[in-house]
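not sure who needs this but someone in the group chat was asking about Dimethylarginine dimethylaminohydrolase 1 from Chelonoidis abingdonii so here u go. i didnt clean anything up, its just raw.
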Amino acid sequence: MIMGESRYVLRPTFVDAMKRALESLNLNIVEMTDENATLDGGDVLFTGREFFVGLSKRTNQRGAEILADTFKDYAVSTVPVYDSLHLKSFCSMAGPNLIAIGSTEAAQKALKTMQQMSDHRYDKLTVPDDAAANCIYLNIPGKGHVLLHQAPEEYPESAKVFEKLKDHMLIPIANTEMEKVDGLLTCCSVFINKTSEL
């Protein structure tokens, strides 16, 4: 990636490689061609029922509209993001119907907005550290609920909160180096729910 003023510009080789990988899985690819639209994956939270899109320095209203046009079967609500890089800097899904959320005022304000915009009531798991709220939930056949979260040595108090999830297989991940360049766990991941023939 090449750093631009306040947004990342992906190198064509990376974009081309990702596009080829997705095409090999026979996935439908939608490209944003509107030069005024910005949409960062870190601002997109899919709950399994609906999308929340953070409006941040990296994502604008036009990007959210294109996402809504692409996924017409799901509600798409926008959430203003203040004092953070993007929406998933302080929240993510920690299980079915469970939102992990940081405890700062900005994180709690965003959660309140999400609750007001949704017809569904989500459970919440509040962790002391906003960055620790960025976790990865997987439902793996034969394994059940699996949660990748930041290691206890990085966020000990937040790790204690995750340990209360007794029905989850917890996998702590050391992420100190990536976090130095604003890379949280979901930033380093692409999830595809399809078997590859590669």
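also DSSP finds five helices and eleven strands in the chain. if thats useful
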